[in-house]
Amino acid sequence: MARKAPAEDPAQDDPKVALPKHAAAGLPALLHTTTMATAQMGAARSVRTLLKLNQPDGFDCPGCAWPEPDHTHTAEFCENGAKAVAEEATLRRIGPEFFAEHSVADLADRSGYWLGQQGRLTTPMLLDQDATHYTPIGWDAALTLVADELKALDTPNAAAFYTSGRTSNEAAFAFQLFARQLGTNNLPDCSNMCHESSGSALTETIGIGKGSVSLKDLYQADLIIVAGQNPGTNHPRMLSALERAKRAGARIVSVNPLPEAGLERFRNPQNARGLVGAGTKLTDLFLQIRLGGDLALFRALNLLLLKAERKEPGTVLDHAFIAEHCHGFAEFAADAETTDWAAVLAATGLPEGQIRELAALALESKRIVVCWAMGLTQHKHAVPTIREVVNFLLLRGNIGRPGAGVCPVRGHSNVQGDRTMGIFERPGKPFLDALGKEFRFEPPREHGLDVVDTVRGMRDGKVRVFFAMGGNFVSATPDTAVTEAAMRRCRLTVHVSTKLNRSHVVTGARALILPTLGRTDRDRQSSGPQQVTVEDSMGMVHASRGALRPPADDLLSETAIVCGLARRTLGPGNTVPWEDFTADYGNLRDRIARVVPGFEDFNDRIKQPGGFALPHGPRDTRAFPTATGKANFTVNPLTAPEVPAGRLLLQTLRSHDQYNTTIYGLDDRYRGITDGRRVVLLHPDDAAEHGLAEGDHTDLVSEWTDGSTRRAPHFRVVHYPTTRGCAAAYYPETNVLVPLDSTADTSNTPTSKSVVIRFAEDSGAEAVGP
Ligand code: SF4
């Protein structure tokens, strides 16, 4: 029975604004967790469910990819993990009656927040050509419809298979195998929009596109630099690890345009000191950098390290490591000497003394970890920036030894695992060879489409079928109008989802919603109860078992959907035992073990509580599988975003009540904003310079080097202590400002952290879309 909408759809443009907080978590987080969980799940179900979250015999958090510690507490989750679980384990349901009541046009007028609040999807739904409403369709008919559309394509490359980071290893492996059996490498994923720049830079420099540290390394570090990252909101349990490191003597340096509460002070709700006391001060040194200034900062640090070595030869650099394990040092060092201090200071906006202070900390520290997230990856020069971070670590041998290394902190819970399973539009030859050998077929070798190229393909009529395994593609991608128009050009769009979102109401000529099991749900197949596996941000693989009764008895798992579709599309005689895979995911894991290095004895090793670590050459043995066979120093010319006079640089970011594109609520508690999202955070002096007062409304206009502009209407001005010249506003509301063609060099990641803007007269609330 469909429920009436439990929440209204507020305008979101007139929030209440208070001063930002200077500490994260503590009692308020506990209260919010309780309120949010009981509103969605009721008290008893909340307790039962949350006590299984991130436990060895429970299920993995569907939130971020932060790893679990070895010895878990009874309550091993954060406020945002609890919100993610509450959204999934909600008692709210939407079935055929809901879709009969709401036309697609009606739903397309609602906000993403409202759509997400309606509840779990229970029934496969079809939007037929020229229909106004979704109507129910049986599972067999739905999968046959998709199979028929795929078989009717002129080429398999006219289909794209998108994966969001929630998808389990088992489902992801089956999904990529299906796409490749069909004949395409069109496997875009959410990683294309977040850490692709990290993957590109790390693969080139250390030979593997993953971080090189474990939690233990963080605990052993002398210095942890957190650059372009807001763990308090996006990876909250990282704060516990930072607290532990701090108590063991580490110094923490934050590099960010905004001061963030979580990095200032952490009130750990696991102990009395955090719950009712002052908590732990985390950041020792805060560098309030300009957006996009990180490359300049790390260049300057590298120059200072080289100079210190010249002054006291043999005391600064790790010469033995550089000689034995690195390539390209001389060229790098010669270029670093040309670093122009005036350019560094202009790009970073930092006082020279602060940069020298950080260099002094680095010189005092034997073991250094650098953590980063979207603040580094979503700039045009993101890849060289991360390469320069690697240079910084290589100089003193800070890769491949305890307490040191690179730590790109991943967003969605299995985004790293999906890539390990082969969700990649540019797979390597060894992976394709192994896949082809195991399943006796010739996989396609031509590179496929990433996210940006998929949108281009749909826009140009080359991609006709779009199939999404989770996620909210149209809200995650830039250039909203272009993306939505592209989606509407498809013959068929299909979304495998747990909840309603905007991608279900911006459709191709026909559209399907295929509801699926979530992490919290019991997954029973013909051989019995199933478990799935995920890989966290630090390369640990572990099992996840949901325990709740699914929202509908005939709901299919992601794996069952993929295998059912593959059988119908590829027909009899296909070399893959799809039915066996669905019956028992252990059969899938046996095959993964034979194809993907590091997964030997997969089924046995996931029985270990906490799972197992994947091999990582640079971390484990200082083996660097790069083109040179060594860790590569690189030359990265100093570049930074250019901002014309009278303009500001805008970054898009998340609120505290948001995880990626999912909006759990309308508050950003740590930043002092409640009951609204259409805000632009501005330094008071910048606001004054542009004639804007706190509380005014303005349109944001982005300007691009090709002369094009884009406009986002009606944002409330909020005075905020951000770096001068650098503004911030939430996505997906500001995705419209970023053109499809503005992407990072090499990685093709949209440049959502360096948007040149000006202000324009407020178009008013009526100009705001859904
Ligand atoms: S830190 Fe991330 S993985 Fe852990 S509970 Fe919070 S959202 Fe979930």
TrEMBL record:
The keyword Lipid biosynthesis does not apply. Keywords: 4Fe-4S, Iron, Iron-sulfur, Metal-binding, Molybdenum, Oxidoreductase. Residues 648-755 form the Molybdopterin dinucleotide-binding domain. Residues 120-495 form the Molybdopterin oxidoreductase domain. NCBIfam families: Fdhalpha-like. Belongs to the prokaryotic molybdopterin-containing oxidoreductase family. This is FdhF/YdeP family oxidoreductase. It comes from Streptacidiphilus cavernicola. The lineage of its organism: Bacteria, Bacillati, Actinomycetota, Actinomycetes, Kitasatosporales.
